Amino acid sequence: AGAVRAALGGSAEPPVRCVCYGLGQFSGCPGARYQLAFLLLLLEELGVPQGRCSLFDPAFSAQEVAALGQLGLQVLPENEEGKHGIEGSATLFYMVHCGKALYNNLLWRNWSAGALSKMVIIGNSFRGTWERLLPRILQRDYPYIAKVLPGTEEAALPAHPRYLDIFNDTSVHWFPLQKLKELSPEVWDSVEEPTYQDCEDLEIIRREDRAEGHSPAKS
After folding, report:
1. Which run of H or E residues covers position 147?
2. Which ranges carry the SRR1-like domain (predicted)?
């Protein structure tokens, strides 16, 4: 909560809603249960009502959907592939260990300085992604992550020895409006929807994958 508050203490607005992607099958995965518990505590700390938190994972079973409903959380009716618009509301995105394409899709859907400045993303370190991928691969496959990096502030979640494999490589990301305004105008000109045609290790479950019965796997 302290790391999130540090982000919110800057130019970011306090979130009034939350969207969670990629939680996984928490009925059988202890790591996913810890991530769900962290989410519930975080909502409480930030004063975001549970009814204003929406979740989606194609791996959710009917029983898990029912359990989330009993907790007061909302389950999104369809796979948005991460393309969730904030529609002007300051929003926290909770996306621990999601695939890079989900982050890229989310950025594309909200590709304006005004929208990005209202977002906080808890998820895989953008800086770590940049360090691990060749620049040409990052720019080709995940161009919105590449383009937003100079306008991003990032703080790693505090490490805890008990939860190293559950929250490893996890950071809080926010996008100060002033930093975004300093990016070149050309950064905002290209708004082409990502297709990932040349991506060799796509870490996302698409709507058509689910329809065809492909088994989902959390990255």
Report:
1. helix 143-148
2. 12-174
Amino acid (1-letter code) at residue 31 = G
Specify whether the CB–CB gap between 106 and 160 falls below 8 A: no
pLDDT by residue (tens digit) across 165-183? 899 999 999 999 999 999 9
Cα–Cα distance list, 159 to 171, 172, 204 (Å): 11, 13, 27
Q: What is the dihedral of CA 129, 101, 93, 84, to 10 degrees?
A: 150
CA distances from 172 to 96, 112, 120 (A): 10, 20, 7
DSSP secondary structure code for residue 78 in this structure: S
Tokens of residue 178, six digits = 């002033």
What residue spans define the domains of the chain? 1-21+79-188
CA distance 108 to 100: 12
pTM equals 0.90
